[in-house]
């Protein structure tokens, strides 16, 4: 009897671990079932530019058909959301379509729930186009814009708007004195601040915006009383983990206070040896970035193969260096490589590696 490896989540983590397993499993004994709530793969690094401009028609480039090539004939993609699942060997996953799928091993890779421009609809390409057109129209129409949150999302969206709408006033309001958070050394945070200011973006640190609706005369007042001209306010505080159905299925204690999934170093859930989690949803002391996914997927794939072979899961995740490339439009950016002494690189390297192409060719190659 063929036993199912069910992967919940069709984003980067789900696709990456599916590819790892497809290259190694015996298709006569095991089958991969990847369950994606989205009709297509959403390449997240390109969503902010796609929501800013129609230039390059990224709606045709950034949302990719899954196909089945990446599964090497050893599985399938089901388009549905998971409403609940049961623990056990085998366990069962219940889908929004009414279907129930048995699993021998369950991998949870559901990523984040996004707001604002990055909240890409899952239903159809037509809905994606409507969403992008809505945000493109809002950004184009706005006379001045406030972004609430000066992490990577806020910096990148500001960079895109400043590039495609040169001279449009943009202000980032951030709770920290410098962009990003203290995990990153001050040298990279100051480099990013300088980059933002070079593009004419105003940065207001150690402050907050609590009322996201501009006044009738087009102004926003911060918590500290600073008045900023703005007729559009966009929340750019990042995503929240998509883990509600996990707590409902296994109990609230499987999640941390931040709603991330508690995992062992093997990336198994405590007390559930055949359930793993990876990607942005895990409760691990690191920044949640796509660069971490290959290391997560490698550990999970090794341990899944061990379980299928009736051996103990022994591969452990040891953490990954902090690596980030922050785009500031198509021709600029800031890169931080968190090894050795901590390397900070500027526009040329960042543009070559990410800003120019947004890594779309690399994503497309995943499904070739």
Q: What does this molecule look like?
A:
The protein is of the alpha/beta class and 368 residues long. The strands form seven sheets. The chain has a six-stranded mixed β-sheet, with helices on one face. A four-stranded parallel β-sheet has the order 13-12-11-16. Strands 6-7-8 form a three-stranded antiparallel β-sheet. It is built from nine helices and 22 strands. Strand 7 (91-95) and strand 8 (100-103) form a beta hairpin.
Give the tags.
368 residues, alpha/beta, 6-stranded mixed beta sheet, 4-stranded parallel beta sheet, 9 helices
Shape, principal axes of CA atoms: globular
| Tally of contiguous helical segments | 9
Major sheet strand order: 5-2-1-9-19-18
Q: How far apart are the termini?
A: 30 Å
Radius of gyration: 21 Å
The parts where pLDDT drops under 50 for at least 5 residues are none
Helical percentage: 25-40%
Average pLDDT figure: 95
Q: Tell me the fraction of residues in β-strands, as a range.
A: 15-25%
Helix/strand/pairing category: alpha/beta
Largest sheet: 6 strands, mixed
The tally of strands reads 22
């Amino acid at each position: 009897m063929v036993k199912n490896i069910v992967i919940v989540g069709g984003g980067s983590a789900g696709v990456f671990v599916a590819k790892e397993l497809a290259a190694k499993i015996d298709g006569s004994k095991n089958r991969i079932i990847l369950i994606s709530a989205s009709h297509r793969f959403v390449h997240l690094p390109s969503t902010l530019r796609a929501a800013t401009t129609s230039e390059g028609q990224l709606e045709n480039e950034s949302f990719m058909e899954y196909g089945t090539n990446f599964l090497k004939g050893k599985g399938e993609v089901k388009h549905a959301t998971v409403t609940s699942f049961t623990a056990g060997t085998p366990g069962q996953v219940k889908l929004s379509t009414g279907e129930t799928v048995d699993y021998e091993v369950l991998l949870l890779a559901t990523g984040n729930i996004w707001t604002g421009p990055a909240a890409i609809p899952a239903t159809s390409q037509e809905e994606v186009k409507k969403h992008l057109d809505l945000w493109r129209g809002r950004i184009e129409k706005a006379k001045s814009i406030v972004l609430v949150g000066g992490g990577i999302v806020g910096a990148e969206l500001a960079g895109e708007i400043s590039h495609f709408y040169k001279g449009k006033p943009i202000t980032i309001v951030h709770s920290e004195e410098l962009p990003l958070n203290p995990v990153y050394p001050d040298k990279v945070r100051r480099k990013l601040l300088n980059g933002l200011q070079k593009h004419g973006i105003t940065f207001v640190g150690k402050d907050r915006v609590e009322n996201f609706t501009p006044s009738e005369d087009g102004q926003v007042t911060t918590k500290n009383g600073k008045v900023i001209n703005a007729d559009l306010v966009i929340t750019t505080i990042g995503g929240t983990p998509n883990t509600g159905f996990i707590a409902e299925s296994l109990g609230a204690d499987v999640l941390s206070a931040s709603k991330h999934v508690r995992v062992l170093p093997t990336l198994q859930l405590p007390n559930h040896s055949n359930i793993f989690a990876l990607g942005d949803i895990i409760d691990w002391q690191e920044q949640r970035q796509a660069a971490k996914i290959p290391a997560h997927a490698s550990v999970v794939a090794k341990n899944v193969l061990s379980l299928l072979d009736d051996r103990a899961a022994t591969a452990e995740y040891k953490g990954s260096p902090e690596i980030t490339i922050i785009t500031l439009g198509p021709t600029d950016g800031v890169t931080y490589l968190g090894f050795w002494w901590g390397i900070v690189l500027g526009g040329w390297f960042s543009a070559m590696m990410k800003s120019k192409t947004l890594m779309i060719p690399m994503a497309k190659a995943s499904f070739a």
